[in-house]
């Protein structure tokens, strides 16, 4: 019998659940990826992610060919292409991994229905997270709404079974090559232009391997280094986790083992991986929160709108708010498709609580810019910062962009990297250049602050008063 593996956010051959299950149960296994026009048609023509995906597909195709298979790549609508391919290849089942985003759930339900009409089935597996859906629930049987008890339950449940790899190699002889596998198209072939991936973005599963090796040399220092954007502290693996060019089981296993050996850095890093699972289960249980406030009372907040708000929003997007750390962070995301976690929190707080702009506008900007854009994590992060989310920051906790800068980029190294016009300012002045005498700022083309933080803070407390009674 024959099977088709439909790759989506799992672009690797090692430890891949759907691939393993297909190889184990069929004699001939074909592999495919659909460049889905339902997703791609809405993107700007220079989207960096498309370039990343094509690079990852190239590596995936090579890895499959080395094992006797090959990747079929189609550009079209997945809901047309998958049933069509299944029919052309004469497969009895299509194997794929869960994607719990609301739009993906709808797509998969439709594909399953179409496959059924000619007696083929869609078989789906967990691959993207350690625990999903209803796997970690409270004693009362409901989903967790607070991270720490979720994390404790996660750690209690996790064991070797959940962390061990799927031994794909053991059954790789079932991989089959179809004449439909004609290689990975070029960007131009699917109507996109090069976006210029930053040179540090390493491609495909081989790139992920390199980053992981590098990170493992400093994972024990993660807890001490991770908050400082000028320091190489985090793993930079987020884009690989997003597209599955690295296995979450492999990462969680390494972190868990090291944690048990007393490595505090690994323990804190594992906690971040658990946040990732947490937000995924939030998305599954509360799909409404992907477009509205998780806590509905927060949708009563009146955000700033109109021409002035649009100007403020544009200044934020373009990194010209007059707050150096905020501007450096926004230039980082725009130039590289990545932003350091501390800075994501700082700029999200700045947009919602200093500028009074709806978190959904910031969320959408991140969704367009981030290579690692992930609906569950991005929405979770934005709703955390705007205080409307599940286990979010209290609304009265308002980051001061200047003290964040003094604390987390004390020497201004990160600011100098992305705001070179400020590079020559003495360190104490780089966090608040508006405090310098105008004469000292002569010749420096840098905006004055677009908002007064102290005034904005008061306005935000008033704005959030509509939810105060319930907090
Ligand atoms: P590391 O510090 O090495 O962490 C390892 C991995 O843990 C990350 O790759 C990521 O998969 C996961 N992780 C870490 N922190 C979080 C978190 N708070 N929530 C969920 N998962 C986490 N992360 C995304 O992957 N995609 C997004 O679209 C995204 N948007 C965000 C938006 C906002 C406003 C905020 C505050 C955070 C967002 N995050 C998002 C979470 C976090 O900022 C990034 O995962 C992290 O900066 C990626 O860098 P890294 O791989 O070097 O992280």
UniProtKB/TrEMBL annotation:
<dbReference type="InterPro" id="IPR018394">
    <property type="entry name" value="DNA_photolyase_1_CS_C"/>
</dbReference>
<dbReference type="InterPro" id="IPR036134">
    <property type="entry name" value="Crypto/Photolyase_FAD-like_sf"/>
</dbReference>
<keyword id="KW-0274">FAD</keyword>
<protein>
    <submittedName>
        <fullName>Deoxyribodipyrimidine photo-lyase</fullName>
        <ecNumber>4.1.99.3</ecNumber>
    </submittedName>
</protein>
<feature type="domain" description="Photolyase/cryptochrome alpha/beta">
    <location>
        <begin position="1"/>
        <end position="130"/>
    </location>
</feature>
<dbReference type="InterPro" id="IPR005101">
    <property type="entry name" value="Cryptochr/Photolyase_FAD-bd"/>
</dbReference>
<dbReference type="InterPro" id="IPR014729">
    <property type="entry name" value="Rossmann-like_a/b/a_fold"/>
</dbReference>
<keyword id="KW-0157">Chromophore</keyword>
<dbReference type="Pfam" id="PF03441">
    <property type="entry name" value="FAD_binding_7"/>
</dbReference>
<dbReference type="Pfam" id="PF00875">
    <property type="entry name" value="DNA_photolyase"/>
</dbReference>
<dbReference type="GO" id="GO:0003904">
    <property type="term" value="F:deoxyribodipyrimidine photo-lyase activity"/>
</dbReference>
<dbReference type="InterPro" id="IPR002081">
    <property type="entry name" value="Cryptochrome/DNA_photolyase_1"/>
</dbReference>
<keyword id="KW-0456">Lyase</keyword>
<dbReference type="InterPro" id="IPR036155">
    <property type="entry name" value="Crypto/Photolyase_N_sf"/>
</dbReference>
<keyword id="KW-0285">Flavoprotein</keyword>
<comment type="similarity">
    <text>Belongs to the DNA photolyase family.</text>
</comment>
<dbReference type="InterPro" id="IPR006050">
    <property type="entry name" value="DNA_photolyase_N"/>
</dbReference>
């Amino acid at each position: 019998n024959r099977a088709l593996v439909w790759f989506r956010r799992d672009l690797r051959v090692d430890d891949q659940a759907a691939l393993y299950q297909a190889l184990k149960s069929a004699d001939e296994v074909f592999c495919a990826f659909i460049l889905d026009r339902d997703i791609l048609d809405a993107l700007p023509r220079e989207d960096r992610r498309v370039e990343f995906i094509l690079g990852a597909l190239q590596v995936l195709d090579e890895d499959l060919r080395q094992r006797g298979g090959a990747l079929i790549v189609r550009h079209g609508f997945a809901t047309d292409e998958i049933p069509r391919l299944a029919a052309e290849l004469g497969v009895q089942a299509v194997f794929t991994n869960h994607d719990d985003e609301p739009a993906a759930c709808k797509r998969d339900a439709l594909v399953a229905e179409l496959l059924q009409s000619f007696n083929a089935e869609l078989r789906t597996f967990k691959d993207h997270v350690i625990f999903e859906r209803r796997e970690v629930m409270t004693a009362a049987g409901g989903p967790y709404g607070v991270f720490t008890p979720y994390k404790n339950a996660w750690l209690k449940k996790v064991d070797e079974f959940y962390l061990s790899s799927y031994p794909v190699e053991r059954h790789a002889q079932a991989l089959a090559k179809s004449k439909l596998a004609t290689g990975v198209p070029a960007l131009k072939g699917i109507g996109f232009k090069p976006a210029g991936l930053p040179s540090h973005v390493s491609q495909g599963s081989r790139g992920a391997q390199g980053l992981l090796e590098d990170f493992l040399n400093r994972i024990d220092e993660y807890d001490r280094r991770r908050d400082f954007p000028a320091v190489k502290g985090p793993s930079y693996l987020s884009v690989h986790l997003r597209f599955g060019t690295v296995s979450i089981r492999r990462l969680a296993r390494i972190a868990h083992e090291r944690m048990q050996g007393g490595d505090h850095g690994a323990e804190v890093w594992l906690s971040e991986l658990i946040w990732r699972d947490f937000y995924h289960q939030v998305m599954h249980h509360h799909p409404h929160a992907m477009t509205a406030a998780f806590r509905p009372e927060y949708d009563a907040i009146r955000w700033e709108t109109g021409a002035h708000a649009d100007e403020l929003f544009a200044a934020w997007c373009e990194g010209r708010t007059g707050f150096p750390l905020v501007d450096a962070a926004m230039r980082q995301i725009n130039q590289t498709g990545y932003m350091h976690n501390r800075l994501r929190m700082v700029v999200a707080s700045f947009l919602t609580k200093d500028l009074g702009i709806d978190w959904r506008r910031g969320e959408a900007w991140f969704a367009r810019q981030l290579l690692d854009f992930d609906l569950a994590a991005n929405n979770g992060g934005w709703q955390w910062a705007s205080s409307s989310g599940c286990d979010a920051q209290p609304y009265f906790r308002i980051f001061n962009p200047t003290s964040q800068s003094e604390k987390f980029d004390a020497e201004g190294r990160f600011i100098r990297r992305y705001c070179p016009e400020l590079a020559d300012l003495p360190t104490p002045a780089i966090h608040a250049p508006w405090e310098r005498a105008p004469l000292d700022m002569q010749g420096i083309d840098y905006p004055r602050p677009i908002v007064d933080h102290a005034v904005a803070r008061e306005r935000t407390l008033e704005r959030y008063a509509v939810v105060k009674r319930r907090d």
